[in-house]
Amino acid sequence: MSGPAGQGSVDRVRAALLAAGHPDTIESFPEGTRTAADAAAAVGCDVAQIAKSIVFRAGGRAAVIVTSGANRVDTAKAAATLGVALKRADADWVRETTGFAVGGVSPIGHLSPPLILLDEDLLTLDPILAAAGSPRHVFRTSAAVLMGMTGALCAEVRGDPKP
Q1: Domain map of the chain by residue range?
Q2: DSSP-derived 3-state class of residue 127
Q3: Which of 51, 71, 74 has its CA nearest to residue 152?
Q4: How far apart are CA 34 and CA 137, in angstroms?
């Protein structure tokens, strides 16, 4: 990170958006967007429209599961779709591997290309909002456009709701 509050990470996401021909739709929310609920409250949308990026370890590579803010990820379903074993990733590994802090992991602009899997539930929502490199920035897009920008696979990854 460089500059105030992860500005280097946000700039990396902005550059990835523009390189993909996507408009710069990054917005800043000083109150924070660290969780899906925080982001939905700040942006003024339904929590389901928040595209949260959850990072797992797939060997030495990051696997990013982009899921609806209303969903939990079924790790077994995600691993089966990706064809790799998934393990929990700690915050330091996430930052080192993706270039993003937990709470600000974007589906684009990574330091090295991750495996990316998109929750099919996001396809029914428009727009969706994803982290833009910091816990205070999001960008607006659609699931179809995000799939095109990332080359993500799309599958059902929804797990059982929290008890």
Answers
A1: 4-155
A2: coil
A3: 51
A4: 9
Counting residues of the chain whose pLDDT is more than 70, the rounded percentage is 95
Tens digits of residue pLDDT in 15-64: 999 999 999 999 999 888 888 998 999 999 999 999 999 999 999 999 99
Fold of the CATH domain 4-155: YbaK protein (3.90.960)
In Å, how far are 100, 115, 123, 159 from 75, measured between CA atoms?
21, 14, 20, 8
Where does the chain show beta strands of DSSP type E? 26-28, 50-58, 61-68, 87-88, 115-119, 128-131, 137-141, 153-155
Q: Using the predicted structure, report yes or no on whether residue 120 has a pLDDT greater than 70.
A: yes
Cα 121 to Cα 83: distance, rounded to the nearest angstrom:
21
pTM above 0.85, yes or no: yes
